[in-house]
Amino acid sequence: MTDTLHYTAYKDGSLISGEVMKKYQEAISVDEQVNNLVELGLTIDDENYAKQVLQRVSYYRLIKAYSITLKKDGRYMEGVTFDDIIDLYTFDQELRQLLFSLIENVEVSLRAVITNYFSMKYGNFGYEELSNFGKNMQTHEYVLDKIKKETQRDKSAPFIKNFTDNYEGGKIPFYAVIEVTSFGTLSKMYKNMKSEDKSAIAKAYNVDYHYFESWIENFAYTRNICAHFRRLYGVRITKPPKLYKQYRTHGILNTSIFATILNLKIITEEEQYKEFYFKLISLIDRHRKVDLNQLGFAKNWDELLRP
Question: Which end of the chain is more exposed for a tag (fewer CB within 10 A), N or C?
């Protein structure tokens, strides 16, 4: 059990008391980790195998993250095994890889669409001018600062060096800048564009920009979850996308991974989405114990996701 303590503190001359804070747990050995799991009611058929796994994947990443849906009142539910946790971990790992690949296709496509439209309308360096965007100066300055840092980070890249060393002023044109700009920065740039420009870009995907700007932000957020090996299973997305009414009637939450997948289906090229869909079906079929409710899947999920 984690110990707690009470503390008092002064703020602006006033006494604050009664706050309950947790004490950090001391590090324990892998052997102790396995013993602790057994004491909490987890069935471990092969303790040597469990120790080998915990030498490769940290207790915090594996056990803390993937036990959330398997416990009740601090103990594992009856019948839950170490292999069940491994199954969830493996499923989540493969789902991240599938989603990352699909989002990558969307990201590459979006960069091309934005580059072609924005450069033709505003020129190679139009991205520097606030007048070419909405009225949010703070967002514009934030984007320019991120672009500067991201360009500096990749300054040794041959195409960046080519512009800085061989072109008058050494400035980087938009069609090159966009290749080193993170998806998150690109999302903020798009959101700060003029409505007419957002609409024209979204039209390439047959989507209203009011939906599209929330989708891009959501895709960028989900992509970062996948890229940094964070958990998808049982998570509620903090950058939720807007959902079409036809999906909301099915009770689908826009804070779920399922909502993200539905929106990806709408704008992904047909063959790319088909490949994702059949791999997803295979993944789900290989992990029958996975509770798809933890990903926000609707009861008729296959019908909704089918190409």
Answer: N
